[in-house]
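Below is a filled-in request sheet from our internal design queue. Each sheet records the structural input a requester submitted and the sequence that came back. We keep these sheets so that new team members can see what a complete request looks like end to end.

REQUESTER: design group, bay 2
PRIORITY: normal
MODE: inverse folding
CHAIN LENGTH: 416
BACKBONE (tokenized):
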């Protein structure tokens, strides 16, 4: 018997038992899809975070008030507020190359017919922006002068909002309404527009308005900073500097570094992948049991057919191959369907992920924000998603196929 004939008979056998075959294949698809989606999403999230870290470098830290981060008070019941004195103190620590204070305030930006409802107003030494954000560049214009209280530079998505033909141009006025306790409407002249940049650890630079540090100090009416951006000489100094700051300030401040955030994200995603991946593995195991059961029932239902085939001269290995091909065909259909379903599911998982912000100037401590990531599909992962279900199906059908091949022709012909 030709191989093509064997698979034709296998396909006919699956088609004759539509519901049973569908349920068996569905179990394979679900298990395969879950495993593929989780591995691809986990790899995509890790790659996305690594990409964002590369935009600021591994030699960076942020320092913010512990109360601001946790929403609670210090041990003395008072809120510790970061000032210029803290900038000088931290700058004196060994391994620190620079300390950049900043103000951060949520705001609504509007101009013409556009209103950007979720934006960030950042007050910082604008001359340091290109040092802090690697590969950041201006689309047009220039950075505001450090002492110009009426100028601003805006992110790409503020200047070119999606779905609007009304775009921002240089030297155009924008209106900013501050949120929180410092509510009020402010007007700035746009001096510069940044090129599209993306997110930096959950801070959307494209949806940010940058003004000078002095402007923010006057407008927000406070001399205390929202946080400090600490840069070390090398990436190897990060841990030492972080420990020194924490030792000096105790529980008064919260210190975060990019490396620890990456480790935390990878730890969370790894645990999630193991937990949910085990569900996919259980689904494949249940599908394997279903295949075994289906094959046993098929053998019993086709006992007389097996007897006839043996009487016609079919060899045991041909009988076994015929039943194994049914199991393999179930695995092929389930593997292909599971791969397609897993591909779609991975993009659904990657569409929006809520994580805690708090790193970088745009990330407000304690704030939950969303970040999207692109799943990563490697040739090895796709091959595994296609071949593993086939292997599971063949193993599940091996014993029933062997039983069918060993059946006595005379007994099988007498079977009712």
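RETURNED SEQUENCE:
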């Amino acid at each position: 018997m030709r191989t093509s004939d064997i698979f034709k008979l296998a396909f006919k056998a699956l088609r004759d038992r539509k519901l049973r075959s569908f349920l068996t294949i569905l179990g394979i698809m679900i298990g395969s899809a879950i495993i593929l989606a989780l591995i691809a999403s986990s790899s995509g999230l890790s790659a996305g975070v690594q990409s964002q870290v590369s935009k600021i470098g591994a030699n960076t830290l942020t320092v913010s008030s512990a109360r601001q981060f946790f929403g609670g008070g210090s041990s003395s019941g008072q809120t510790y507020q970061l000032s210029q004195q803290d900038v000088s103190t931290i700058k004196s620590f060994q391994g620190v190359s620079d300390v950049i204070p900043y103000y951060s305030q949520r705001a609504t930006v509007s101009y013409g017919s556009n209103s950007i409802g979720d934006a960030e107003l950042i007050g910082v030494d604008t001359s340091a922006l290109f040092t802090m954000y690697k590969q950041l560049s201006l689309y047009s214009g220039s950075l505001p002068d450090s002492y110009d209280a009426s100028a601003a530079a805006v992110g790409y998505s503020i200047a070119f909002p999606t779905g609007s033909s009304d775009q921002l141009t240089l030297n155009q006025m924008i209106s900013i309404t501050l949120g929180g306790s410092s509510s009020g409407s402010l007007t700035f002249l746009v001096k510069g527009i940044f090129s599209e940049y993306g997110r930096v650890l959950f801070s959307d630079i494209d949806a940010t308005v940058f003004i000078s540090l002095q402007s923010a100090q006057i407008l927000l009416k406070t001399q205390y900073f929202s946080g400090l951006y600490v840069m070390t000489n090398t990436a190897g100094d990060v841990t030492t500097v972080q420990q020194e700051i924490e030792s000096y300030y105790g529980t008064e401040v919260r210190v975060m570094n990019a490396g620890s955030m990456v480790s935390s994200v990878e730890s969370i995603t790894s645990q999630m992948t193991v937990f949910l991946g085990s569900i996919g593995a259980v689904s494949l195991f249940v599908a394997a049991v279903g295949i075994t059961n289906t094959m046993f029932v098929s053998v019993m239902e086709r006992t007389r057919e097996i007897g006839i085939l043996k009487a016609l001269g079919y060899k045991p290995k041909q009988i076994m191959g015929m039943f194994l091909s049914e199991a393999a065909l179930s695995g092929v259909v389930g593997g292909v369907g599971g791969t397609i379903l897993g591909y779609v599911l991975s993009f659904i998982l990657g569409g929006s992920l809520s994580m805690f912000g708090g790193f970088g100037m745009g990330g407000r401590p304690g704030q939950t924000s969303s970040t999207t990531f692109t799943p990563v599909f490697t040739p090895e992962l796709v091959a595994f998603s296609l071949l593993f279900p086939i292997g599971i199906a063949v193993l599940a059908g091996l014993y029933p196929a062997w039983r069918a091949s060993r059946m006595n022709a005379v007994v099988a012909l007498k079977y009712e």
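SHEET NOTES:
- Confidence is low (pLDDT under 50) at residues 69-76, 352-359, 362-369.
- The longest helix spans residues 258-301.
FILED BY: M.R.
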